[in-house]
Amino acid sequence: MRFFELTQRCGIVPIARGCALPFPPEGGWATFWRTVAAVVAAAIGLGVLGAGCSKESGGGAPKPNMKAPVPVMVATACARPVPMVLKTFGNIEANVTVAVKSQVTGMLLTLNFKEGQFIKEGDLLFEIDKQPFEAALHQAEANLARDQAQYENAKKEADRQAELLKKGVAAPSDYDAAQTAAVALGGTLKADQAAIDQAKINVAYCTIRSPVDARAGAWMVDKGNLVSANSSTLVVLNQVHPIQMSFAVLEGNLLEIQQQMAKDKLKVLALIPGHEDQPEEGELHFVDNTVDRTTGTIHLKGLFPNPENRLWPGQFVDAALVLYVQPDAIVIPSRAIQTGQKGTFVFVVKADGTVEARPITIDRPINSETVISKGLAKGETVVVDGQLRLVPGAKVVEKSSLQEAAHPETAKPAPAAGEGKEEQAKPETPAASRKSSSDPAASKGSRLKSKAASAEKGDTTAPPASAGDKGAPKP
Questions:
Q1: Burial 447-470 (b: 16+ CB within 10 A, else e)
Q2: Is it the case that residue 428 has pLDDT exceeding 70?
């Protein structure tokens, strides 16, 4: 039944401009307003029902209050052996460093290696002009020969004086002088021999050889220069096979380190920046005998074979000291962990496809994963991406990539619940607009509703009468 016909049955007739109500309606004003309210409620109900019918005719779209599953990425909590690691930073040092210097003064004749070359122990490095030292050696040998002859003569003279003294011919003072001269020349012989040995050493010092297997640095002195004894560094040798890493840990870890060292050798890892997935492995071989009072740390050193020369003296790396290995530790990706008012938690996917917020206790992080000490069991599924859209009890659907989880429109399940609202929000078509404007009863009903509202507010100004109002009786 149209709104215009309902108003006529209730005693409401079209009114002229400038008059709010021409006469009291039948049954009184109370009955009138109750009737108007009923008519308005019926019209609204018919509109909602019509919208619902048009929505149900759209097919299998979900109801507005239904929520589609939230697309998320998940991971499974696994149990595996996880090492207990003390992490810090370390500095790579050469196992042996040698500053090569000359022990004699002379001209540098040859350099028998290249800068940066790997050198074996005993390889020839430098040669210094040895001619002056060879001449000193020959001189010392000549002095020895001379003094040897004098010693032999003095010894014979002492023997003769001894025979004469026995016969009573020689004076005791002559015998004593002969014995003294022989003993003195014997000492001179020893001094000459020592001079010869020193000259030989100086000649040997003119040839400089590598004392260790090492890598040579840059030349400090070029060929042809005069080098002084024990003053000028010719080259620096660093042993890199093996090589060591120096690092420090807090003194509170000292007792545990000592306990684990008593059981077995401790593994040390050197993680090169940018290549953390390929650490170098070594062993802890030095613990300092004193705690640094200024920093509260204990100094440690690890020894590494370094076969591929990935570690280099002076290099800074991340150090990791492995104390022990924890078996069957529960491990999940770190991005699954959320922080709330009650602490850390994760969203656990249950068997029915819904999620629950599970409080957890974190043991320690390991790279991109975290060890959980309490709250999770092996094999449970946790959400690692898409947590912002989740609440406890929400339905989830698993996605295989972050791109799919970020774009729910690619989901295979039914469309989200918001699609029904989009149909209601569609603008009115031109055909519907023309239909409503061509219906005189609807136009009159809307004008009467406007007039009734104006009368209720006390507004005496009525809207202009349209062409459809010309046949209405005047007050």
A1: bbbebbeeeeeeeeebeeeeeebe
A2: no
Return the pLDDT at 111.
93
Dist CA 305 CA 281 (whole Å) = 8
The residue type found at 215 is: R
The pair of three-digit structure tokens given for residue 417, joined into one six-digit string: 């619940």
Q: Map tokens 């002859």 to a residue.
A: 149
Sketch out the chain's domains with CATH numbers.
3-61+421-469 (no CATH), 70-79+329-410 (2.40.420.20), 86-91+239-327 (2.40.30.170), 98-233 (no CATH)
**Cα 300 from Cα 249, distance rounded (Å):** 8
Question: What DSSP designation does 61 have?
Answer: P
Residue count of the chain, please give it: 475
Strands 78-101 and 118-119: what pairing?
A: unpaired
Q: Give the C-alpha separation, 71 to 395, whole Å.
A: 9
How far is it, in rounded angstroms, from Cα 49 to Cα 285?
84
For residue 223, what are its two tokens? 């060929």
What does the pLDDT look like over 441-464, one tens digit per residue?
444 444 544 444 444 444 444 444
DSSP string of 40-58? HHHHHHHHHHHHHHHHHTT
**Chain position carrying tokens 């590494």:** 304
